[in-house]
Amino acid sequence: TSAVFHPTRELVLTSSIPGSARLWHFFPTIEAILVEAERDLRVVLSQGECFQYFVEFDPEFCEKWDE
């Protein structure tokens, strides 16, 4: 099962690991957050479901993910 959302930047860009704190707040069963592509976040839930986020990245956000 997959669903596509269009969250605000506030939802995604937060915490020392971008997106983690806010995403965990909304989806406490998150198991992993994977960067699929430059603008594509794939959030894997522990039940095996996958939520895909298409967001506009800023350079600082991409650099933090690369670290």
Any overview of this molecule?
With 67 residues, this protein is an alpha+beta fold. The protein has three helices and four strands; from the N terminus they run E-H-H-E-E-E-H. The chain has helices spanning 9-12, 20-26, 59-66, and strands at residues 2-5, 30-37, 40-45, 50-54. The protein has a four-stranded mixed beta sheet, with helices on one face. It is globular and about 30 Å long.
Query: What is the count of distinct domains?
Result: 1
Provide mean pLDDT, rounded.
46
Shape verdict: globular
Strand fraction band? Answer: 25-35%
Instruction: Name the helix and strand elements from N-terminus to C-terminus, one letter apiece.
Output: EHHEEEH
Given this structure, which CATH class is correct?
Alpha Beta
Say how many strands there are.
4
Terminal-residue CA separation? 30 Å
Class by alpha and beta content = alpha+beta
Profile the largest sheet: 4 strands, mixed
Question: What can be said about this structure in brief?
Answer:
By secondary structure, the protein is an alpha+beta fold. 28% of the residues lie in helices and 34% in strands.
